[in-house]
Design a protein that fits this description.
This is RimJ/RimL family protein N-acetyltransferase. Residues 16-180 form the N-acetyltransferase domain. With 210 residues, the chain is an alpha+beta fold. The protein has helices at residues 26-33, 36-40, 54-64, 118-132, 147-155, 188-200, and strands at residues 11-12, 16-20, 71-77, 86-96, 101-109, 137-143, 159-169, 175-184. It contains six helices and eight strands, in the order E-E-H-H-H-E-E-E-H-E-H-E-E-H. An eight-stranded mixed beta sheet has the order 1-2-3-4-5-6-8-7, with helices on both faces. A hairpin with a 4-residue loop joins strand 4 and strand 5 (101-109).
């Protein structure tokens, strides 16, 4: 099957909805992820990428997200008292149609939803969109120093491929090594089943804020 870029339309799950991120959403996104703890893990190039103002965050977002080349998502809660609340962002991008490769990344969530159903369902929805549209390999990666993100990616069922050394600059100008993982289409049924089992443990209860 020849890969095609997934349509930029909402992806609806049981706990979250992935909508196309709009620049009009940036104030709400800043409220959700504009915290030092989010950038400390490597998002936005690391701690030096953090800014404490909406103006600074908007300027950062203008260049950080590949608005036209990628499917940049706003992550919103579904159901419960916080229905519709924007709690983060994640992107399916780096589309290589000829080689059927894509990349899930540029992910950050409100710390109040860490450890909930949010990340597992976001990955389930985006991986499903990629494989349903003919992609054969989806890459996920993290700064080698980001133990939290590396553990979260491994927990998804992705396979660790290795370390890409001196891969990209952090916001402070230092060079990061990247821990690279992937899910290939042959593994997708098992990975999907694992993610669905994790989500079932939440028993359909709407995500609350911690």
């Amino acid at each position: 099957m020849t890969a095609v870029r997934p349509a930029r339309t909402p992806l609806l799950g049981e706990y979250i909805r992935l909508d196309p991120l709009l620049k009009a959403d940036l104030p709400d996104l800043f409220a959700a992820i504009g915290h030092p703890a989010v950038f400390a893990g490597g998002f936005g190039g690391g701690p030096s990428g953090y800014t404490d103002s909406l103006a600074g965050f908007s300027a950062f977002a203008e260049t950080y997200f590949a608005w036209e080349r990628s499917n940049v998502h706003a992550v919103r809660l579904v159901g419960g008292e916080h229905d519709g609340l924007l709690v983060g962002t994640s992107t399916l991008g780096d589309f290589d149609l000829e080689n059927e490769h894509a990349h899930i990344g540029w992910t950050a969530y409100d710390p109040r939803v860490w450890g909930t159903a949010v990340n597992a369902e976001a990955k389930l929805l985006m991986l499903g969109a990629a494989f349903d549209n003919g992609f054969g390999r989806v890459k996920l990666q993290a700064d080698v120093l980001n133990d939290r993100s590396r553990a979260a990616i491994a927990k998804l069922g992705a396979t660790f491929e290795g370390i890409v050394r001196r891969d990209r600059r952090r916001a402070d100008g230092t060079w990061r090594d990247s821990a690279v993982f992937s899910v290939v289409v042959e593994e997708w049924p098992e990975v999907r089943a694992g993610l669905e089992a994790r989500l079932a443990a939440f028993d359909g209860r709407p995500v609350g804020l911690r």
